[in-house]
């Protein structure tokens, strides 16, 4: 064993003692790797072009495979001897293939003259990554120096390299043709790679704009970061983008690593949907993002070497973290996490090869040069496929969502169409409704075309009986058939204006059982002829539920005059068909004599409220007499209105107006309050008498009415039993439940209740028994006819007997002579009221009349 060690030691000494080998350059060698003949010396003292002779006195050592020294701060000199073995001159290119050396100086001297006194070098090149790109003798992304070798010439080449980054010196010697071909091939490969990456970036940005999802933006930013990093490491950015700004190129190289890490962590979180599926990994990657951004800012504060080490050192744990997040998502069953994890393993492998190379832990220049591009390409393809799969899924979901939205929109359009139809069509018949009819009529009247216009209305009578007989559904179906028949007939009659040209609707459903059409350019006789044709169509028998039914139709027409208004013309047509008696086949044309709705009525409707407010109405009082004692037991308060323009307005004219305009409650309150005030005056004059006031159905429907009566009684200091409220049986039966509740509340106050005009309305004994009434007033029509009709006398006798059986007092109205008084007394009637005793008296005559009676 000792002998073997001695032999190895001697061999080592012999190799160290070998003279420097000279690199023989021949035409058969288009590319020569210089590393085997390369020697190095770590610079310990400054050497410049002026003292190159110092290099001859230094101790040089063979480089071997140590051209990658990692991150060192020292400057190194490299030396190689070469000889042109040809008999002809040669032009060779010396290439330093690592483009990130800060400072590179190359000196070429003749080897035969190397001695103590160095001659001036044949050539000197000063360039580097920290010098402007224009300093390079040949414009290339790497450092390339031309060598003019004379025939059989011996040369020594010195190369000084100093860099704050990785120190790598891969040297090659090329023929010009071989280098140009290599450079072109390299440029083509890189152009294809960069171009494909740029196309993918543009495509992803387009997807981002289309899909409105950040994951595509993050992926595009990741690709931009990786592409920038690779282009910087390859020297492409310095060559083509910032050739005159070496410092800016340095910052681009440093910034690309933390920027890429930051956007990749964002992409990982979004792509794997960690916020929804794994909050812990989401928070860890969030921290990694902020750390990467902090490293990005630290670049501007740290030295170049420290910033480089920080970026490379940060890339490993962040990459491992992203791979771990992918594995965690994969384990949770996330389908897309599989490709994501594999792609990151590939990229991390490439990055580790580059990092190992940068740190000088290995010397694989070809592998390290293409490790990241190849790994990045594989990762990009895998992630692009994964994103394409996700895009397809998103697209399918969006298509489904779009289909759902389209379906919703279609439903909305259908609803809108239905709403439009419901707003313009009758729901039962499908004909245009009154609004469309009025719009079409207004448009025609406003056109000023010189054409005459008229309308015809057809009203079906007896529909209520049909509802009771056939049921509402069958009755509606019958009306729909009649409407369809009428519209089809109207299409064939010239002169009728179409209300809806698209659906050929000529007839409108003005009201539930009233139809109308607009006719143009017809005189009265022609209008009547056309209306008769349509009416006859409606009156033709129609089958329903096995029955043959004939409808009765009232028909009214109105012809527009100059400046006619739509509402006026419609009102006139309604008035016209109202003049047609049931089962009368006449076609009635509107005539002004038919119109009971004169300007006088409109004026009264307008001024009634003001008259009530100004206390322009007055009360008249008609006495009620006890037929047994002939004493006056009460007064009925009756409202009277003397209009300043029209004079006396009868109650049967202004009371319906009050009911129609909603003033009836105010009128009732005014009458009660005024009657109670007069009753209080009579009591002050020692006249104790009952006061009767008429109330309407609207008063009974007002839940606050009993309370208002109580307040008025309290204010007037009149006892409740001295007030009688008269309500007709028709009003009481309009809403029996509400009426019973209101009258019961009034009765509990002590107010007397009287059923007015009994016998002329419902006369329902069931409801009459439920009413808390105190008296019944026989309708005056029976009293007036009692001497002429035995039936009327029988009715009077029946009402009196029935009322007494129920405990009611009975008042006979319309007493005009002594014979009527005698009849009522004979039949047992309690009280009488009428012209025989007194006409209604104004307030200032009541006291005198009472004193004289």
Structure, described:
It is a single chain. With 853 residues, the protein is an alpha/beta fold. The chain folds into 4 domains: 17-182, Immunoglobulin-like; 213-396; 432-597, 2-Layer Sandwich (Alpha-Beta Plaits); 600-852, EAL domain (TIM Barrel, Alpha-Beta Barrel), CATH 3.20.20.450. It has 27 helices and 31 strands. The strands form 6 sheets. An 8-stranded mixed beta barrel has the order 22-23-25-26-27-28-29-30, surrounded by 4 helices. Strands 1, 3, 4, 6, 8, 9 and 11 form a 7-stranded mixed beta sheet that branches. The chain has a 6-stranded mixed beta sheet with strand order 14-16-17-15-20-21. β18 and β19 (547-549) form a beta hairpin. α8 packs antiparallel against α9 (337-358). It is elongated and about 170 Å long.
Overall number of structural domains: 4
Task: Please give the radius of gyration in angstroms.
Answer: 58 Å
Please estimate the helix content.
Answer: 40-55%
Number of strands: 31
Provide the CATH topology of the largest domain: TIM Barrel
Question: Based on the structure given, which CATH architecture of the largest domain is correct?
Answer: Alpha-Beta Barrel
Separation, N- and C-terminal Cα atoms:
168 Å
> What's the rounded overall pLDDT mean?
84
CATH superfamily of the largest domain: EAL domain
How many individual helices? 27
Protein name: EAL domain-containing protein
Organism: Aliidiomarina minuta
Transmembrane segments: 191-210, 217-240, 252-272, 284-304, 310-332, 339-361
Pfam family, one: GGDEF
């Amino acid at each position: 064993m000792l002998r073997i060690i001695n032999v190895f030691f001697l061999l080592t000494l012999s190799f160290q003692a070998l003279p420097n080998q000279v690199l023989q350059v021949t035409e058969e060698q288009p590319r020569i790797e210089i590393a085997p003949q390369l020697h190095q010396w770590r610079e310990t003292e400054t050497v410049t072009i002026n003292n190159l002779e110092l290099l001859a006195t230094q101790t040089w050592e063979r480089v071997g495979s140590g051209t990658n020294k990692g991150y060192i701060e020292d400057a190194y000199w490299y030396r190689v001897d070469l000889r042109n073995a040809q008999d002809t001159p040669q032009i060779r290119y010396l290439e330093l293939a690592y483009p990130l050396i800060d400072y590179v100086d190359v000196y070429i001297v003749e080897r035969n003259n190397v001695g103590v006194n160095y001659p001036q070098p044949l050539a000197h090149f000063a360039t580097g990554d920290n010098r402007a790109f224009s300093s390079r003798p040949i414009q290339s992304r790497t450092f390339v120096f031309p060598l003019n070798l004379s025939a059989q010439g011996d040369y020594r080449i010195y190369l000084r390299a100093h860099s704050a980054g990785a120190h790598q010196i891969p040297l090659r010697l090329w023929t010009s043709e071989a280098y140009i071909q290599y450079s072109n091939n390299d440029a083509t490969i890189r152009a294809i790679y960069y171009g494909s990456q740029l196309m993918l970036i543009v495509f992803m940005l387009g997807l981002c704009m289309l899909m409105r999802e950040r994951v595509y933006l993050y992926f595009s930013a990741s690709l931009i970061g990786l592409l920038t990093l690779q282009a910087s490491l390859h020297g492409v950015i310095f060559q083509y983008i910032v050739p005159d700004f070496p410092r800016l190129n340095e910052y681009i190289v440093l910034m690309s690593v933390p920027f890429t890490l930051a956007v990749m962590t964002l992409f990982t979180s979004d792509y794997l949907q960690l916020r929804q599926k794994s909050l812990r990994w989401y928070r860890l990657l969030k921290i990694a993002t902020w750390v990467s951004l902090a490293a990005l800012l630290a670049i501007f504060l740290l030295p170049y070497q420290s910033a480089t080490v920080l970026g490379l050192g940060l890339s490993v744990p962040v990459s491992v973290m992203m791979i771990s997040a992918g594995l965690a998502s994969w384990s949770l069953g996330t389908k897309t996490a599989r490709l994501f994890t594999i792609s990151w393993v590939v990229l991390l492998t490439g990055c580790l090869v580059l990092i190992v190379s940068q740190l000088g832990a290995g010397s694989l220049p070809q592998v390290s040069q293409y490790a990241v591009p190849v790994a990045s390409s594989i990762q990009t393809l895998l992630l692009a496929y994964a994103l394409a799969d996700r895009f397809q899924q998103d697209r399918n979901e969006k298509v489904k969502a779009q289909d759902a939205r389209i379906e919703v929109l279609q439903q909305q359009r259908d609803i809108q169409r239905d709403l439009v139809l419901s707003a313009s069509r009758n729901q039962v018949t499908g004909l245009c409704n009154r609004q469309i009819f009025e719009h079409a009529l207004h448009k025609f009247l406003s056109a000023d075309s010189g054409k005459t216009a008229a309308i015809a209305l057809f009203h079906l009578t007896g529909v209520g009986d049909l509802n009771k007989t056939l049921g509402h559904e069958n009755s509606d179906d019958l009306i729909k058939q009649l409407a369809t028949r009428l519209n089809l007939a109207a299409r064939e009659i010239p002169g009728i204006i179409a209300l809806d040209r698209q659906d050929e609707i000529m007839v409108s459903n003005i009201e539930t059982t009233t139809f109308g059409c607009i006719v143009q350019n017809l005189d009265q006789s022609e209008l009547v002829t056309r209306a008769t044709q349509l009416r006859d169509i409606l009156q033709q028998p129609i089958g329903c539920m096995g029955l043959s039914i004939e409808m009765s139709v009232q028909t009214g027409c109105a012809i527009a005059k100059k400046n006619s208004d739509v509402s006026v013309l419609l009102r006139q047509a309604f008035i016209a068909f109202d003049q047609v008696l049931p089962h009368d086949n006449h076609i009635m044309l509107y005539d002004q004599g038919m119109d009971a709705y004169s300007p006088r009525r409109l004026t009264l409707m307008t001024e009634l409220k003001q008259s009530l407010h100004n206390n322009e109405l007055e009360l008249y009082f008609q006495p009620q007499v006890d037929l047994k004692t002939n004493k006056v037991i009460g007064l009925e308060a009756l409202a009277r209105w003397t209009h300043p323009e029209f004079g006396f307005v009868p109650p049967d004219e202004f009371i319906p107006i009050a009911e129609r305009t909603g003033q009836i409650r105010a009128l009732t309150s005014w009458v009660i309050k005024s009657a109670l005030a007069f009753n209080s005056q009579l009591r002050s004059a020692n006249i104790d008498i009952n006061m009767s006031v008429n109330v309407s159905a609207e008063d009974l429907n007002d839940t606050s009415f009993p309370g208002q009566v109580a307040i008025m009684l309290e204010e007037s200091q009149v006892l409740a039993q001295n007030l009688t409220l008269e309500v007709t049986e028709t009003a009481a039966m309009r809403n029996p439940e509400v009426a019973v509740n209101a009258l019961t509340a009034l009765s509990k106050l002590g107010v007397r209740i009287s059923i007015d005009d009994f016998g002329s309305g419902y006369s329902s004994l069931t409801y009459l028994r439920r009413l808390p009434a105190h008296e019944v007033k026989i309708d005056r029509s029976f009293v007036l006819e009692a001497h002429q009709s035995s039936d009327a006398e029988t009715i009077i006798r029946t009402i009196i007997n029935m009322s007494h059986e129920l405990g009611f007092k009975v008042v006979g109205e319309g007493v005009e002579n002594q014979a009527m008084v005698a009849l009522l007394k004979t039949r047992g009637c309690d009280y009488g009221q009428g012209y025989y005793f007194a006409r209604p008296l104004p307030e200032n005559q009541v006291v005198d009349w009472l004193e004289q009676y």
